[in-house]
Amino acid sequence: MKKILFGLAAMASLTLTACGGGDYCDRNEDLAKDLSDKFEECGFDTSATPDEPTDAERDACKEALEDCSDDDKDKLDATLDCIEDVKTCSDKSTAEQTRILSDIVACSAKGGTVSAACAASIGG
To answer: φ, ψ for residue 86 (rounded to 5)?
Structure first.
């Protein structure tokens, strides 16, 4: 169950925040590293953490945002803000692991739904 929730949380946070514009892509990259650290502190196996993005992937992120409106970018920003504020676990208990995963999944919905064009472009 934990693996399924971890996968859902990771997909939600990374898919919905895959990009965001200008500094959004950099911010998302930093956020992914921060989440990996939080997950490790919570006792999750983070050995499968993706490698750092390549320059081509960074460029693709920025290009993908051309299909996102300012409103879409605001929604992506709100999601990033929420995920940044998720607190790490106070211990490695199942209850704390469930809490952090639930918090991240809740953040993925917090910003709302981006336009179809933006979602298709960023892979959402």
So the answer is: -65, 130
Structure-derived torsion over alpha carbons of residues 112, 45, 47, 50, reported in degrees to the nearest 10:
0
Q: What is the pLDDT of residues 4-36, one digit of tens each?
A: 444 445 444 444 444 444 578 888 888 988 999
Q: How many C-beta atoms lie closer than 10 Å to residue 7's C-beta?
A: 12
Nearest residue to 88 via CA among 124, 27, 46, 59: 46
